[in-house]
Fold these 2 entries.
Entry 1:
Amino acid sequence: MTAIRLYDTTLRDGTQAEEISFLVEDKIRIAQKLDDLGIHYIEGGWPGSNPKDISFFQEIRKISLRQTKIAAFGSTRRAKTTPDKDNNLRTLIQSAPDVVTIFGKTWDFHVREALRISLDENLDLINDSLLYLKRHVEEVFYDAEHFFDGYKANPAYAIKTLQAAEQAGVDCIVLCDTNGGTLPFELPPIIAEVRKHISTPLGIHSHNDSECAVANSLVAVDCGIVHVQGTINGFGERCGNANLCSIIPSLMLKMGKESLTNEQLASLREVSRFVYELANLVPNKHQPFVGNSAFAHKGGVHVSAIQRHSETYEHIRPERVGNISRVLVSDLSGRSNILAKAEQFNIKLDSKDPLTIEILERLKELENQGYQFEGAEASFDLLMRRALGTLRPFFSVVGFRVIDSKREGEDKPFSEATVQVKVGGHVEHTAAEGNGPVNALDHALRKALENFYPQIKDMQLLDYKVRVLPAGQGTASVTRVLIESGDADLRWGTVGVSDNIIDASYYALVDAFQYKLLKDSDAS
Ligand SMILES: CC(=O)SCCNC(=O)CCNC(=O)[C@H](O)C(C)(C)COP(=O)(O)OP(=O)(O)OC[C@H]1O[C@@H](n2cnc3c(N)ncnc32)[C@H](O)[C@@H]1OP(=O)(O)O
Ligand SMILES: CC(=O)C(=O)O
């Protein structure tokens, strides 16, 4: 088996993505996480670019890492200077990394238009920059920027630029698809030609502008490339970089390549989410391998089959990358979805039980009204228990009223809710103010229920989403409210639908409180 060296550039190319910026502390934490994951090289930044990146290299030296080598990134020297006087090259050496990676121009068009120098001058600056670095740094990598576009425009010159790097004794030459326009079938003949002229180990760095960055990286490995660059979650300039969260499992589980241990591979989803969290971005649900939906089964035909054998609709075992299989319920469900959910909620249900069909029909009817249970599993659990007649009625709401008013000269509107809640034989009448009508209703319901169920105090409303569903033929538009609640142990979602937003919120809130009481009573 060939071992593949993984080179992560989340902290450099990843930060070139719109909306992504990491503090030095974030970069250090991500570097430690990637070290635990087993990444071989971490490109920490461009020290010649900004003080934050200089400080990353100062700080990371104080941290003991298991096996990862830290790489600093920069460019070949500027045309009008010499390597020893070039500020960028000097800063790279001063940052004292394990590895230096510099990029240089391969494409004659770029040499003429971007650098505005002659083709020979460019060969000199690639060669003497790398020779100079090799004298000061143990391991030096060369990123051949725009390699594939350069090769297509002028193959002889593109190869000469790689030879200029090879003659300087670099440790790896990385073929870059900088503009991300290369398609997978174009790589094998080009890489085969490169291998006739270059014996230095080769790497790949692909961008995702044609949505082929992962495919191109895998094809390159299939052509004998041994060093793969990419980022966690595919963050990177424009449409992003090659996504290591897809490349790593494909290399290990499909191509039989050595890179991480199985245990490290099983932490991939956690690493992906950690990086999303520090980037302050919502994880992409539909991300292959590590996303929430990567192994979520919705169609009844799929659910029925995966219950017989999971591989019928799963390309790998989700546990291999730290993910799980999930069954969703919707109007595309069959009995298998209902039975799978019942099992998840510890509810005994038989496929031949007429109640299974009844629940399925009720589900489809509610989805037709605008309900959606994919993000509201707690409401679906309650729906099943109501249908089975096993839900303990912890409380009922006799009625509520919400007032929202604003007077001239007042900054904010005033919101107040009153509710009448019945618990056993007692009716509790409470009123509360809130920051908006739904918040007031939430406060009033809590105030009433806390007298009977003090554990309600532990519960918080974490997220509130409203969606106005377009009117169908002959029907008014309706509002769907999804609420996420949580306590110290769990988070759960509930849903309410009505043509009135307060009423829709009321249904979702009542389910949220019901579910809290149900789960606490099941646990006791
Ligand atoms: C393919 C990639 O993703 S490469 C990485 C790209 N990342 C970044 O650019 C982020 C960090 N960059 C920066 O902080 C800044 O651009 C700096 C500090 C590097 C340079 O800033 P400035 O000196 O103000 O130059 P500016 O950004 O305007 O232009 C880029 C300069 O680099 C030169 N340059 C570009 N590529 C190379 C190269 N491979 N070798 C040498 N010089 C290069 C350009 O010719 C231009 O110099 P000039 O204006 O003297 O002709
Ligand atoms: C080096 C690099 O980031 C690129 O060519 O895209």
Entry 2:
Amino acid sequence: MDGLLTPRESAKFVAENSRDVFIDGGGVQRVAELLLAKAAGPELRVGGWKTLHELNPRAADEAAVNWVFVIDTLNFSFWSERDEHKCLVGYRGKTYSGYWSLCAAVNRALDEGIPITSASYYATVTQDQVRHIFRSDTDVPMPLIEERHRILNETGKILLEKFEGSFLNCVQKSDKSAQKLLHLVVESFPSYRDVTQFEGKIISFYKRAQILVADTWSVLEGKGDGCFKDISSITMFADYRLPQVLVYLGALKYSDELLEKLLRGEMLSYGSRQEVEIRGCSLWCVELIRDCLLELLEKKGEKTGGEINSILLDYYLWDYARDHREDMKGIPFHRTRCIYY
Ligand SMILES: Nc1nc2c(c(CN[C@H]3C=C[C@H](O)[C@@H]3O)cn2[C@@H]2O[C@H](COP(=O)(O)O)[C@@H](O)[C@H]2O)c(=O)[nH]1
């Protein structure tokens, strides 16, 4: 078996060999045009991470970096069997679901004096304490709570052993290179190794490691230790929401057989052919949308709030999916239960 492909190489290879998932060129063009209208707005710039999301830290200090690290260590699998019956977390008068329920629970714990973002705490936190910290306001708990406990202990111990308990030390060891940080994370922390096989090749999507680099860049506002010279080498994050929104916007299509399977709510195993095709084609689709958008910007000589990269397109599309949840009801997301996304 050949060597490990990078996420971008993996996505291209999957898209070229996919049988049940297809990229629609016309849809790619239309999404690029949708994004062109937003190019100079607050969404498609690094500052949007803070200005658009009240639960994200305001600061750009070591504590904020360690907040990002613990969040992205647990940033996986929030979908519930029945959407109307799910984990909800109330925080400061608002109710949060999905990914935001994780952020709300972490902020609630900090308000309660629980140092959940400190490695010295979560390296030895007990399962009962984790159940309490991530408790739901409904009778549906946050999915994979035992796995979240195991990963917190494992990750906290490694952060203490290798990086004196602070993710900022890991960031500073990567010489302001996004790729070096990405590889330091996947080499050091086993739960970030989002790697599988497809057609005889070893492929990587590294969804949580890539979003960790992206969120570190964002929380540091692209400055100082977060001024990654190669930040644009990071691709979109292959989760279960981006495919759904790309299908909704017409940039991605499923075969009838796959669509019927997803509409039935059938689960797909992590690393199965159709699951890999959905993730790989979504990633490649966003790369093509970015290329198309940069071409449109070039032609129109439009001004932007800084370099437009796949991270900002991903953030925009993920927020778009959040804001259009009702409209997207008819489009199924794929159900894979795993710790990688
Ligand atoms: N591709 C992509 N996937 C993302 C995110 C985020 C959160 N990032 C936000 C936070 C700050 C930034 O401003 C971003 O807006 C979470 N996820 C994934 O989605 C799924 C949860 O979805 P739902 O069940 O609807 O909450 C789950 O797999 C989770 O890992 C993203 O940005 N891109």
